[in-house]
Amino acid sequence: MWVLALAVALLAGVCATGQAKTLYWNLGAEPPSLDPSLATDTTSHLILKQMFISLCQFDDATMAVLPDLATSWEFDAATVTWTFHLRNDVRWTQRNWTPSGMPVTAGDVEYGIKRLLAPETASEYAYVLYLIKGAEAYNTGVGSADDVGVKALDDYTVAITLNFPAGYFPTMAALWLCAPLPRQAIEAYGDKWTEPENIVTNGPYVLGEWVHDASLVLVKSPSYYDANNVKIDEVRCTIVVEASTVMAMYESGVLDVDDNPPLEDMDRIKSDPVLSLELAQAPRLCTYRYGLNAAKPPLDNILVRKALASSVDRQSLIDYVLKGNQRPAQTWSPPGIFGYVDGVSLGIGYPYDPEAAKQYLADAGYPGGVGFPEVTLMVNTSQGHQKIAQFIGQGWMDTLGIKINITNQEWGVYLATCSADAPQVFRMGWCADYPDGNNWMNDVFHSGSGNNYEKYNSPAFDALVEQAAVETDPAVRLDLYKQAEILICETDVAFIPIYFYTYNQLTKPYVVRTFAAIGGESWKNWDILDH
Amino acid sequence: MARRKTQSGEQTSDKPRSLGRDAMHRLLKNRAAVAGGAILLVIILAAVFADFVAPYSITEGNIRNNYAGPSAAHPFGCDFMGRDMLSRLIYGARISLAAGLIGALTAFVLGVTFGLISGFFGGKTDNIMMRFVDIMYSFPTLLLIILLMVFFKSSFSISGVAEGGFRGALSNIDRAMGGMFFIFLGIGLTSWLGMARLVRGMVLSVRGKEYVEAARAVGTPRSKILLRHVLPNVLGPAIVAQALQIPGFILYEAFLSFIGLGVNPPTPSWGMMLSEGYVAMRSHFHLVLWPALAISITLFAFNFLGDGVRDAFDPRQTRR
Amino acid sequence: MFQFILRRMLWTIPVIFVVSALTFVLMHSVPGSPFTRERALPAAIQKNLEAKYHLNDPLWKQYGDYMWAFIRLDFGPSIAYRARTVNEILAQQWPVTMTLGAVAFVFAACIGIPLGILSAVKQNTLIDHSSMVVAMLGVSIPSIALGPFLIWIFALKLKWLPVATWGTPAHIILPALTLSTFYLSRFARITRASMLQVTREEYIVTARAKGVRESVVNLKHAFRNALIPVTTIAGPAFADILTGSLVVEQIFGIPGIGKYYVTSIANRDYPVIMATTLIFALLIIFMNLLVDISYALLDPRIRYT
């Protein structure tokens, strides 16, 4: 019955345009969960972005915050409250496809946020919303849901009260975290509400079919409020993990986009007449770093850390190993994040300077590396990380004359090791949850943060980022973040930033597409030409 | 001993030829086995004398040469870090051969000991021990080895902290060997079952023989019977049987390195090189070609030699 | 015979217990809980999650609870994939692996055994030598090298077959072929050796002397007896093919249980690990039983008490 309705809808679409437009995509992993409160990985977020809308959305190119479910919003300084006014023409879509289905209301937004914060849900991203009044208390089990500062004033107005005026809150409203959720479906089906036969969504696409570990199909939703502008009717996703296999599938024409071509193929792609035109590189809001455990000798000596930081040849790493036109990083927040400083041009941090590195090491008491104890460099088990480790580790050995032991541990063990007793040098990365320096400086390196594997503890740094969190004047905030960057990267050398990620994607010429700097792609804005 | 002439005029001696010499004679006539043995010898020599044979060290490389194809300076090309493939292959032979040999040795020692005790003491001991083997046989080997390797790599953490005692000692050994110790241990711990069964079977048959009965009758202590009468007769076929397993161990190590549970970089093992080159296969084929060839040729040679040895020791000829 | 089968089936019970206990202990000895994440969870939340999955109970209790549920065929929830139970995951992915394994086994047996017979019958001819060289290659080239090579030739260059994933019969060919080469070659070699041995037995000579046709000699007398050593390795062959699917499924992107196993260890998805290992073990026991039964069928001299 449902399949019939789907077929009819598709057929209608086909008759209207003359041809069903299908996008063939590959997901690099099986999405662990399509529940917006629980999803933590990029694959799940990509699919969720197509199925659920949130209060706001990001402009793909500029990352400005645009209206989505909310048409407008304003801030009241007196009550420290953001009030969002919602559209009244958004409907929940269910399997039996009643077009005049239930409206999406402010009550659903309130329900969605509170469910995210509920301790039983055990969402990993709840901490991001701790700036909402009463959120932390509720999430850690000491407060109640009623005290959380989210209120549906009427069906189409929601008020969110914060602990402090955060100018960046609209960027968080654009995240899936503030998305309305379908209460009825969740309460009826429990953990299984995300299965295709149960799921209720409100976005440009609905979940048509999901064969776990094999394939996933998204179908255009006729009841999406902006359905007229959605051009692609269907997205068929395969689920293949092996990157070289995916590349082969792209080359044989089975896939329209390869969003993760192996870096080993980069040379061939760039010199191939066809593929080189299909390659696009765009910045990505992620940074790769080598964390330093300053509690472990010999890294407790800041001169040693400076020596290590100064002998990483980032440009060669990018040119010869990564091959993806990444950008060298001497500071932490990547370009595109509010609070980014161009460390390379401004001279913040430690550029590649082998002579200076040798001098630092000599000053530390180990001229030429003599007497320097062996240092462990640990990464999690992956070919890519091991190659980078080999390059950098070898660089240290050659430049400084020291001995590096490169080892790896499988991911789960690795995180446990880094939390409990991190090795001297360990690899970590971070991708933006929302495009603000608070997510980078405060959420990661505050002394109380669980993401602070270096166990960096600087009262001065904490003060800077705490002040920047509540500050409303953007100019002041920028300056505070700049000071924080200088402090942590240059003065204290808590870690060594290596590079800012880029997206390298191969796209067939008949796909008209956008590139999302944060979060997943917006397939509703794409188009497929006749081919 | 006098030499006599037989009727056909051939010269023979009536000095009895031992099984070993007979076998050797047959082996040498088997051309494929000889070829295999020769290839293996070359590989083993190259591995042992790697420091002299290899043109470069395993870490020496210029990143600007990365992925370079074959050239005069680098006949097999360079890997992703600009290191010479030929040198890494030669050093890699050490790992693969060591994995094969030491893994085989570990399995051999465990299996023979187990089988000897079980077969010799018989009765209830035998029953229990063999039941244990039967149970372990049902454990999917690959899964067990993966679990073991994850366990080893995580428990014997190598985070640069000096640990005392047993764990520290093991970690240090492992680090000194470039991460190979636990692989050998893992392979050995999961592969001794077949040997145990085989040895037990042989011990059972030898036990019934007259010379053992005689020794018992005379009052020889059991341990002496075990060591002097039973063991030598069992050892020969056991060694041959185990040698035939070596190719499998080399494959195991390659597989483990491939999925990331193997040696630590920059130690080159053929499996690790395959894994590194695998992703680049379509763009830089030589990264995969040489390690794949190396593994295949080594296994090829081992198999031919192994077949030859087995046929040589088997008095019933299968060739006319 | 019946008694024999019965005893073997009873025997599986202690085996399952030992295998499960060993897996359980190993699993829980590896540090890292299923809830260790890059973005650290607040301690209270992590405790809640662990309580929900009974991970804070003493180990013996967890083990007992698990085995009790296992016997009733309830394999528990998946920790990594909250919306799915292990039963559902297995139900979806086991058939894929079994199909792949079965097809690979069929390839190995139906190509390997006749190849061996042919080589034996035409001993020392070109056919014999070339088949044996091919067989040698088969046991020497690892699947991690062979798989991508086959993809390159048959899928990319010749475009005869699809590159990867699963769905149509065409998708099964390359992965099954990769998986089967090792045992195909072993079957060929053992069949050949065994046939050669059997054809020297006296009953064959007698049959020939009686004037029985050569083809009948080969099929009815030689082959049946030659199969016995071949059957010996059929059991381990199937077990190895099943576990070998781990790598092949990864290379070809096949949604089977093999590929899933390594991921579930990484995710510390305990219920999945336990269930998969135990089912593998059960399958191996079952295959060994089949092999023993076929011994009795093939060789009338073998009688089980």
Keywords:
heterotrimer; A: 531 residues; alpha+beta; seven-stranded mixed sheet; four-stranded mixed sheet; globular; C: 305 residues; mainly alpha; 77% helix
Task: Describe the 3D structure.
Chain A has 531 residues and is α+β, with helices and mostly antiparallel strands. Helix content of chain A is 33%, strand content 20%. Chain A is built from 18 helices and 19 strands. Chain A has helices spanning 2-17, 42-51, 106-117, 135-139, 169-173, 183-189, 243-251, 266-271, 275-278, 302-310, 314-322, 343-346, 354-363, 383-400, 411-421, 437-445, 459-470, 474-491, and strands spanning 22-27, 56-58, 65-67, 70-76, 81-86, 150-154, 157-161, 205-211, 215-220, 234-239, 257-258, 279-292, 327-328, 375-380, 404-409, 425-431, 495-507, 511-512, 527-528. In chain A, strands 11, 12, 13, 14, 15, 16 and 17 form a 7-stranded mixed sheet that branches. In chain A, strands 1-10-9-8 form a 4-stranded mixed sheet, with helices on one face. In chain A, α10 (302-310) runs antiparallel to α13 (354-363) and α16 (437-445) runs antiparallel to α17 (459-470). The two termini of chain A are 33 Å apart. Helices cover 68% and strands 2% of the residues of chain B. Chain B has a two-stranded antiparallel ribbon with strand order 1-2. In chain B, α4 packs antiparallel against α11. The model of chain B is unreliable at 1-13 and 158-162 (pLDDT under 50). Chain C is flat and about 85 Å long. The longest helix of chain C has 39 residues, at 214-252. Chain C is mainly α. Chains A and C meet through α7 and α15 of A and α2, α4, α6, α9 and α10 of C.
Quick recap:
The complex is a heterotrimer of chains A (531), B (320) and C (305). Chain A has 18 helices and 19 strands.
Hey, which two chains have the biggest interface?
A: A-C, 52 and 48 residues
Distance between the termini of chain B: 32 Å
- Please tally the β strands of chain B and state the result: 2
User: Count of DSSP helices of chain B?
Assistant: 14
Unreliable sequence segments of chain B: 1-13, 158-162
Question: Gap between N and C termini of chain C, in Å?
Answer: 7 Å
Task: Summarize model confidence as the mean pLDDT of chain B.
Answer: 77
| Pattern of helices and strands of chain C | HHHHHHHHHHH
Q: What is the average per-residue confidence, as pLDDT of chain C, rounded to a whole number? A: 81
Strand order of the largest sheet of chain B: 1-2
Low-confidence stretches of chain C: none
Percentage of helical residues of chain B? 55-70%
